[in-house]
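Q: what sequence does this backbone want?
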């Protein structure tokens, strides 16, 4: 039997105690790890409380100031509020714990750190612990009862299908290959196409950066050629955005067989005067609210439907209660059906007096409206109604018979057209020849009229020199033949419209006699008396010409020079303005022009005071050349000169 010493017994006992202690520590560590792993969210406030007490205790020995602890607390608060969580409520409670315990740590460190904890254990230890426990309950309750919703079940699609509009794809391919690929409408992309009616396609076109829409509005003819469409089958519309435009492609025109007249369509200052190729109405704008009354210009060759268009214009104006006066220099041959329906002025002299009276009426209305404080005519304005004013439109057909270049009546018509809008007075001129000479050579008169409306029907004579068509006009009315596929093109042309410029249109088939008989009678009220035919034409701000100046051909040229510069004995006499006398014959006019400098035949035709037409001018130049008075140009189209 062996005996053990006391040291051996104590060593054996210490070894067993160490094993038991090690096992106990292992079990405790495992239990704590399991608890932390399974329920760490429930015990989370305990960690925050322990961290707060540790920071408050070590701040004193380490010499950490309360400002540093405050900055640390703010950083922890920001992290807790921004860190990803189940919901915003979780973030808010987490930030609240950081704020409360961080504030306790800052107060403890500021009060002395360990010394404050030893002196006031209740405030520095017990209170933060209780706050942590209280703040931990809503956290645990929220996480326990508001579990995140289950993820949605994935939708299984057998085969991915790309939905592509076949119409858009068709026109996008054609636009890219046949239009842009041919150098037309560069910088555009067709992004959407719809077919509102059979044979009509409306496409939305996107512009590349730096692409200007102005040239595109004039590219209708090029697009028609590229897509092999008929004349006038392409029209552009503005969408209000610079980078987007809408183009109308007409493969089946609705105006080929004519447009039936269904009666006036006047509504709010607008009415349908033509029908576009896509079937939409082409509107003539008479007036706009608080804007005034607009005029217009109608141009068309003989048999092009100009009288029919004017008939539709008059019928709609009367339907809207607009006062209408018609001037017909052809003594009643232009619009005979409307003789008894409106105030009618046949003959050149009466039409000239009508133009002068219209000018006087515009100036009188301007005074009346200005005195009443009205900036622009509006038929619904009580002040305008109190004055007894209503919309008034004067229509002058064959205006080229009275608007003779270099005559005072042209300046009078210019001033009237430029000032008529705000007075509620509109002027509509109609002519056959597309030359500026038809408007007296006045570009200002043309611009004032086409700023409102312009209906350009079929034209057969391109004219010479400057044209009556607007500078930004789109379309080719000269390309319309008298017949297309055996059908008359009477009434076909182009209507200048804000977003439909360049699309072919057609005037309705109007029975003028029946329309005039059915139209209401609107009495005409003038605010100025009739014009005395013997009175001279005087523009506002100008003096009336003297007797000697107004007498045509009064005295010889020597007498007129003596009257202008004074005659006899160095006496002082007042100088009078002498009107320049035009050459008596076309030959003298040509020679006078060539004395100022060499000029080609086209340059002579471009002059607004050219007294002959193209064929007559070439015949005259040939006679002057044969007579040796002028020298022909060295090459075709060159300038003529006076012979030495």
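A:
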């Amino acid at each position: 039997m062996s005996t053990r010493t006391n040291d051996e017994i104590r060593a054996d006992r210490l070894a067993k105690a160490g094993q038991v202690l090690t096992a106990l520590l292992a079990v405790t560590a495992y239990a704590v790890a399991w608890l932390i792993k399974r329920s760490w969210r429930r015990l989370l406030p305990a960690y925050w409380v322990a961290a707060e007490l540790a920071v408050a205790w070590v701040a004193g020995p380490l010499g950490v100031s309360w400002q540093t602890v405050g900055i640390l607390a703010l950083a922890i608060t920001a992290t807790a509020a921004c860190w990803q969580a189940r919901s915003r409520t979780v973030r808010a409670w987490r930030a609240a714990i950081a704020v409360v315990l961080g504030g306790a740590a800052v107060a403890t460190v500021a009060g002395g750190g360990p010394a404050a904890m030893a002196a006031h254990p209740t405030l520095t230890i017990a209170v933060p612990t209780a706050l942590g426990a209280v703040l931990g309950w809503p956290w645990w309750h929220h996480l326990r009862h508001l579990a995140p919703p289950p993820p949605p079940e994935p939708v299984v699609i057998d085969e991915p299908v790309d939905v592509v509009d076949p119409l858009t794809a068709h026109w996008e391919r054609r636009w890219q290959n046949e239009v842009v690929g041919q150098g037309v409408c560069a910088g555009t992309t067709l992004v959407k196409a719809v077919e509102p009616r059979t044979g009509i396609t409306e496409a939305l076109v996107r512009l590349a950066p730096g692409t200007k829409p102005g040239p595109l509005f004039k590219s209708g003819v090029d697009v028609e050629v590229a897509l092999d469409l008929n004349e006038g089958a392409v029209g552009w519309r503005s969408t209000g955005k610079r980078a987007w435009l809408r183009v109308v492609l007409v493969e089946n025109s609705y105006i080929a067989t004519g447009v039936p007249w269904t009666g006036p369509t006047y509504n709010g200052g607008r009415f349908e005067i033509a029908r576009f190729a896509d079937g939409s109405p082409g509107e003539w704008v008479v007036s706009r609210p608080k804007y005034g009354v607009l005029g217009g210009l109608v141009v068309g060759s003989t048999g092009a439907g100009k009288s029919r268009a004017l008939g539709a214009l008059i019928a709609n104006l009367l339907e809207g209660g607009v006062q209408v006066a018609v001037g017909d220099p052809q003594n009643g041959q232009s619009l005979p059906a409307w003789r008894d329906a409106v105030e009618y002025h046949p003959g050149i002299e009466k039409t000239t007096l009508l133009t002068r009276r219209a000018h006087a009426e515009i100036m009188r209305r301007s005074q009346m409206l200005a005195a009443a404080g009205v900036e622009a005519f509006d038929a619904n304005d009580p002040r305008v109604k109190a004055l007894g004013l209503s919309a008034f439109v004067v229509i002058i057909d064959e205006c080229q018979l009275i608007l003779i270049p270099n005559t005072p009546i042209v300046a009078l018509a210019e001033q009237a057209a430029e000032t008529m809008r705000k007075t509620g007075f509109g002027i509509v001129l109609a002519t056959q020849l597309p030359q500026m000479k038809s408007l007296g050579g006045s570009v200002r008169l043309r611009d004032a009229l086409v700023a409102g409306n312009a209906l350009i029907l079929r034209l057969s004579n391109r004219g010479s020199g400057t044209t009556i068509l607007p500078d930004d006009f789109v379309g080719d009315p000269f390309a319309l033949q008298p017949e297309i596929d055996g059908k008359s093109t009477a009434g076909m042309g182009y209507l200048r419209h804000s977003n439909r410029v360049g699309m072919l249109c057609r005037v309705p088939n109007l029975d003028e006699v029946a329309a005039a008989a059915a139209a209401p009678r609107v009495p005409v009220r003038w605010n100025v008396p009739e014009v005395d035919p013997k009175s001279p034409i005087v523009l506002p701000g100008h003096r009336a010409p003297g007797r000697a100046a107004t007498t045509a051909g009064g005295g010889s040229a020597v007498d007129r020079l003596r009257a202008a510069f004074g005659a006899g004995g160095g006496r002082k006499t007042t100088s009078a303005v002498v009107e320049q006398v035009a050459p008596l014959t076309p030959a003298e006019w040509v020679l006078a022009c060539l004395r100022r400098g060499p000029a080609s035949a086209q340059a002579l035709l471009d002059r607004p005071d050219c007294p002959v037409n193209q064929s007559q001018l070439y015949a005259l130049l040939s006679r002057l050349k044969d007579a040796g008075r002028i020298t022909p140009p060295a090459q075709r189209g060159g300038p003529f000169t006076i012979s030495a």
